[in-house]
Amino acid sequence: MNAENEIELRLMAEDRFAELNDGFTDELPEGMLALVQELRAHQIELEMQNVELRKVESELTASRDRYSNLYNFSPTGYVTLSNKLIVEEANLTFASMLDTDMRHLLSVPFSKFISKEDQDNFYLHHRKVFSSGLKQTVALRLKRESGIEFWVKMETSPDKSDDASGKLLLSILDITEQASLEQQLRQAQKWKLSAH
């Protein structure tokens, strides 16, 4: 709280004290009267600060809830990996992509969710992000809980916050339909070329 706010708070507390003065202080010795007035003013200041803190806490809670909803119900899967490529955080969208519960994601190596055929691509991708310090994009296949594989586009950025120490931030989009259409188009072009 800055000095201007403290002065304003103090003046408001003194005004409130004057309103609340019930006359019992009229018979106190002057030194004690000043002390009682000071204590009452501090009490009123604390009560006013408490009201302000509750208001700020309520605003922070609402803001956190809005962020949580945006994070968890985004159409994009979000994952934070430790420097050892262990899942530290994930949103509900990513859990839904894998048809699993959130508790099966956390503290698990991310490689567990990657198709065996794309493991090397993932580690190469990780090295590129780490060596360049820049966001990198890769398409690879992930595995659902049932073992069914699906294509994703994964953008990976190094976490640049102060306490990140090698963490990675992933945003993941399911591109299975797009990949399937591209494969069909390639097959159709191959068929067309072979027909001539």
Please tag this protein with its features.
alpha+beta; Beta-Lactamase; 5 strands; 2 domains; 196 residues
Describe this structure in words.
The protein has 196 residues and is an alpha+beta fold. The chain folds into two domains: 3-70; 75-184, Beta-Lactamase, CATH 3.30.450. 52% of the residues lie in helices and 17% in strands. The protein contains five helices and five strands; from the N terminus they run H-H-E-E-H-H-E-E-E-H. The protein has helices at residues 3-20, 30-72, 92-97, 119-132, 176-195; strands at residues 77-81, 87-90, 136-143, 149-158, 168-174. The chain has a five-stranded antiparallel β-sheet with strand order 2-1-5-4-3, with helices on both faces. The longest helix is centred in the N-terminal third of the chain and has 43 residues, at 30-72. The radius of gyration is 30 Å and the shape is elongated. The model has no long low-confidence stretch (mean pLDDT 84).
Tell me briefly what this model is:
This protein is an alpha+beta fold and 196 residues long. It is 52% helix and 17% strand. It folds into 2 domains: 68 residues; 110 residues, PAS domain (Beta-Lactamase, 2-Layer Sandwich).
What does the secondary structure layout of this molecule look like, with pairings?
Layout: H1 3-20, H2 30-72, E1 77-81, E2 87-90, H3 92-97, H4 119-132, E3 136-143, E4 149-158, E5 168-174, H5 176-195
Antiparallel strand pairs: 1-2, 1-5, 3-4, 4-5
Helix pairs in contact: 1-2
